[in-house]
Amino acid sequence: MQDKTPINSITIKAPARLHLGFLDLNGDLARRFGSIGMAINEPSTIIQLTPAKSDTATGPEAKRALDALKRFKQSLSVVNCYEVTVNETIPAHAGLGSGTQLALAVGVGLATLEQQPHPVAKLGEILSRGARSAIGIGAFRDGGFIIDGGKGTQSSPPPILSQTNFPEDWRVLLVFDPKAMGVHGEREYIAFSKLPPMSSQEVGTICRLTLMQLLPGLLDQNINAFGDAITQIQRIVGAYFATAQGGGIWASQHVATIVKRLGEMGAKGIGQSSWGPTGFAFVETQAAAENLYHSLVQDAKAMGLDIIIARGRNSGATIKRSATSERSDLKISDLNIKQY
């Protein structure tokens, strides 16, 4: 049963996501895209919504948050006003899903305060989130390792085909280039409209790698099989998008240098998340991650890069609400999974 206790304010922490590749950039089966991705424990977006006399927003990405609040209010017919305090954000245009996580955090926060629960996917549709991929929506709602079925003829986000836990012991090293920026906005729209269909043979290879190597490797916790599949998928997808990224498969050559060195030193499944510039590489243990981090962090800093060690996140966004209710720390599912 849904808790009807009045809520004075609400804080939502939303996880970043990695986009690891597309299944089908051909589309001759009436579905296109199909995404592979996962939620990670950091970086995160953290916002607080509080009732106010007028709609305001403060902190990083304040304008984006305020625009989202106003659009959600209009769609949900909300008349009350709120202040959005953005305490922390996922780096924008870095391939980590920052826009989707911020939008969903604002939308779910508003819907909760107004006691108007809506499915996360429906809230995403209001701000055109999930237009190509459901990875960000799935990461926000439930976390884990996610594969979606691509866009068909419907306007709703793609269906999620598989959502499973990521191995608790595995780690992912993320390599950031604060000076670079991935393709986004109008450039992204133009890129997708101009790129020719991927060959059926390449699509078939990606789908076979995903179904017969990547997923079994993940479920068997065989990082060699999993990582080899990720690396191969990244090469095919990266080559497809190369012309839209200036002729190469990496948005940042500095990131490419460090990620390739991680691979040479034993990391598995190297690549770039979405349009980048963030690069990634997987290892089996925290100790292995720390060893690689300390081996390369100074070289990375000399190039102006940052490296962090992240984990897969096997739960979605969390909510902390201030109210008279005894329960304050919640997951999206606690608020009624059928509605949110």
Task: Tell me the layout of helices and strands.
Blueprint: E1 7-24, E2 33-52, E3 56-58, H1 62-76, E4 81-88, H2 98-113, H3 120-126, H4 135-141, E5 145-148, E6 160-164, E7 171-176, H5 185-194, H6 200-219, H7 223-241, H8 253-264, E8 268-272, E9 279-283, H9 286-302, E10 306-310, E11 318-323, E12 329-331
Parallel strand pairs: 3-4
Antiparallel strand pairs: 1-2, 1-11, 2-4, 2-5, 5-6, 7-9, 7-10, 8-9, 11-12
Helix pairs in contact: 1-2, 6-7, 8-9
Concise account of the structure shown:
The chain is α+β, with helices and mostly antiparallel strands and 340 residues long.
Can you describe what's shown?
With 340 residues, this protein is of the alpha+beta class. The chain has two domains: 1-165 and 314-340, Ribosomal Protein S5, domain 2 (2-Layer Sandwich), CATH 3.30.230.10; 167-311, GHMP kinase, C-terminal domain (Alpha-Beta Plaits, 2-Layer Sandwich), CATH 3.30.70. 36% of the residues lie in helices and 26% in strands. The protein has nine helices and twelve strands. It has helices at residues 62-76, 98-113, 120-126, 135-141, 185-194, 200-219, 223-241, 253-264, 286-302; strands at 7-24, 33-52, 56-58, 81-88, 145-148, 160-164, 171-176, 268-272, 279-283, 306-310, 318-323, 329-331. The strands form two sheets. Strands 1, 2, 3, 4, 5, 6, 11 and 12 form an eight-stranded mixed β-sheet that branches. Strands 8-9-7-10 form a four-stranded antiparallel β-sheet. β11 (318-323) and β12 (329-331) form a beta hairpin. α1 (62-76) crosses α2. The protein is globular, with a radius of gyration of 20 Å. The model is unreliable at 334-340 (pLDDT under 50).
